[in-house]
Amino acid sequence: MSSFSPREVQEWVDRRQSTTSSSTVSSASTGILFPSPTTSPGSSSRKQSWQFYDDVVRLELTPAVQISFVKGGQLFKLKYTFIDICKDSTGALRCLELGGGLGQQTPFIHGFSNTKLPVPHLEHPKTGDDYPLRVSFMDQQTVQTGSTVFMTQLSYKFDHWDDCVRFQELLLGSKLVFIGGMAEAKSKGRGEECISQNLRILRGHNGKRVMLFFANSQRRELKRYVSIPLNCIASIKPPKKAGRPALLDLNPNFEILSQMRNLTVQFLDDDDCAAFCQMLSYDLTIG
């Protein structure tokens, strides 16, 4: 697997489709979506993953993951007990293959054709001990099961935070070392960056750490994930009182950092703020 790099971060535009008028289809009704195969269940799709991808890691789930997506105006919710993360020789994510579903006869394949690294988006901000368990992919991607192929947007709902963490880490090829929910974040140069989002810090195999958040407050063409290497942070000023924001001064190493100049982060939880400031202060001290 390749290490996480700021240049690999997928630029996202929020194109979530409305599902308010969609009906829901359970796992037991999947015949509507996926006709039963005329051939024996099998091994052909399974062989494809192991034959054509250099790096396949299986994530066993406790007990399952529920995926949701819309097809033909209907909202489908299906459960699977494991996910195979399939990457090519360069470390690029090619597909997720889900198995262990009730009555499943062919693998459910979530394909990624884009060369950019897809960022698993946490749909809800962490608040205290309440961790986000739903991960979505806001760009449309290819789904294949048997002979059925279509484009849709998928979300994954995990039962346990540990499974959700491993899923993110395997996709990004990095270790999740911090997560904190933000009420808002602002920069001096661009104004409000985001509201009600998560701030994650990821550590790559080379030891470098990157701060990651989704700038959902920016105008449409700038709604994207922003990655800031921790070695691009010049200083951090922890809040003097509880409930106040932390202030980060940024080195102008990249164009976006030159535009932002600094970043004010208001965390939802004071303990998360304290842990974040302690981590960054330590890095600045030793580095």
From TrEMBL:
Superkingdom of this protein's organism: Eukaryota
Name of this protein: Uncharacterized protein
Bias (Basic and acidic residues): 8-17
Biased amino acid composition, Low complexity: 18-45
Organism this protein belongs to: Penicillium desertorum
Annotated region (Disordered), positions in chain: 1-47
